[in-house]
Each structure stands twice: as structure tokens, then as C-alpha cells.
Amino acid sequence: MRRLPPPPAARTTALRSCTSTAAAEARPSSPPDPSPPRPDPSDVRSHNASLIALSKRRGCPRYLGHILAAFASMLKCGAPPDRCTYNTLVNARCRLAHLADARAELDRMRGAGFVPDTFTFNSLLLGLCRGGVLAAACGAFVQMPRRWGVHHDAFSHTILIHGLCAGGRVDDARRVFEKMSRGWCRPGVHTYTALVDGLCKDGRVEDAEALVGEMVAKGVLPNVVTYNALVGGFCREGRFVDVFRLLDKMAAEGLAPDWWTYTHLVDGLYEHGEVERAAKVFHEVGKHSAPGDSDYNALSDRNSIFNDMKAALDGNCK
């Protein structure tokens, strides 16, 4: 029998290479490193992201302490603060109406060579309005483009309109709104809602309803907050036929009432002596609430209304 010739050296080498590769692939691979690489502690963007995340927990003084601790950690790591850093600090101070501290942050921002922008001044407007210093807020609003060369945006107008309405200066708020409507920065749903709410709380529900009609005609769709302002205005005047008509309109537009809607309705019915109807609304809300629901519990605790409504409901069920 004829023997086969031995394989050439190149084929032998290739065969050995394939065999070793297959063996290597058969061996279990090492597990991935469970600890991902940490960001550079001097990276200002990562520190700013932390500051912004903390600042979103707004309205509580203890979170300001967390923000300041994060800022101190940022400085300790050698990360140089930038405009975003200082804007976040100014905004956090202004949300709590800590005006002196906000001005100090603004001075530190300027001292570091950063020019305040629209976001900076919007934060200052918010702080001045929340602090009740409306004259200073109006002055800052006027001086933004004149003195500092900073343009207004929709937030600038909305903050000032909301602040003026909260301070009882609804006519001034309306003038700001009308001037905004004539300019390049047109009002959106949040601006309209701020003025609608102010008009309702000032007892001008017809004007508020007309304003909602105007916003729809201009292509700005109301949201639940807009309708809640109207519901609150109707309830304060005892116009419950209009309230339920508005609820039907919300349903037709695919907007579901929220807890503020029901709070306005229950409070309004109770305040106008319609305890049984208030109890029925409360009972219907309770059917769709999980036990321990914080919003439902808050609603039931309002001014001992729950006890009166429960008694009325029990009387109807007998």
C-alpha cells in the first residue's frame, strides 16, 4: 500500500496554531471587572451633574446643605467651578428666597470671570418674587436687556407674572403678559396658566375663562393645571354646574383630573354646604386609591372634612 507523504511544515504549523486557538477558546474567560472606571474627580461636568441632580429636590432647606457639601467636595477635588456651577448655586439660594446669599454667589460668579446669563437673572427674579420684593423684581426685569444685555425668555415673563399675581398685582401681571404677546417671545401654556390662576384667585373667573378661550384660539392647548385653576375659581364661587361641565370637557380632550382637581371640588362643595355631594366625590376618589395613598390621606385630613363627609355618607347608606 502506498504511503501518504508527510504534511509540509507550513501545514503542520497551521494545524498546531488552530489546535492551540481552539484550546484557548475552550478555556473559561476571566470575569469582567465589577468596578467600572471612576470619572476624573477634577471633571467639572460630573460635579455639575451632581449639583443639578440635588437642586431638583427643590423647596427643602436641608437639600441646600447637600448642594453646598457637594460644592465643597468639588473644590476639594480641584475641579474649577464654571458658569453652570454658579448658576446652580444661585438658583438653589433663590428657590428658598435666600436673597443675600444669592447675591453673594452672584458676586463670586462675577469675580471668577463669568458673566451672568438669562438663567442667572431668571433665578434672581424667582428669588425676588418669592421674597415678596416685587418692585425689585420688576426693576431687574426691566434692566436685564438695558443694563446687562441679557434677553428675556418665556421663563422670565412667567416668573414675573406668577410673582405679581401671587402679590395681588394682577393688573400689572396682565400688562406684562400683553407686552409679551406683542413681542417675539410668545406666551405658552405655562405663562397662560399663571395668569389664569391669578385671575381666578382675584375673583375674575369670567376673564380667566375668556383667556383660556383666547389661548385655544391661538393654538396653545390648556393642560390639567390650567383647568385646575378654573375649577378652583368656579368652586370658590359655588358654580358647580360649570365645574362638572369643565370636567366633561377635560374628559373629551383626554385629560384626567388629578388630586388638585378633586381637592378643589371637595373643598368647594364642603365650603358651600354641599356636604353630601362632597362625601360622594370623596368616596369615588377613595375607590381608585390604594391604602396608604399619601395624596388620598392628605385630602382626608383637610380641616376635619373627612369626618363630616363620612357621617353624611353613612347616613345616606342606611
Automatic annotation (TrEMBL):
InterPro entries: PPR_P_subfamily, PPR_rpt, TPR-like_helical_dom_sf. It comes from Brachypodium distachyon. PPR repeats lie at residues 82-116, 153-187, 188-222, 223-257. It comes from the Eukaryota. Belongs to the PPR family. P subfamily. Transmembrane segments: none annotated. Residues 1-46 are annotated as: Disordered. Keywords: Repeat, Transit peptide. This is Pentacotripeptide-repeat region of PRORP domain-containing protein. Residues 29-39 have a biased composition (Pro residues).
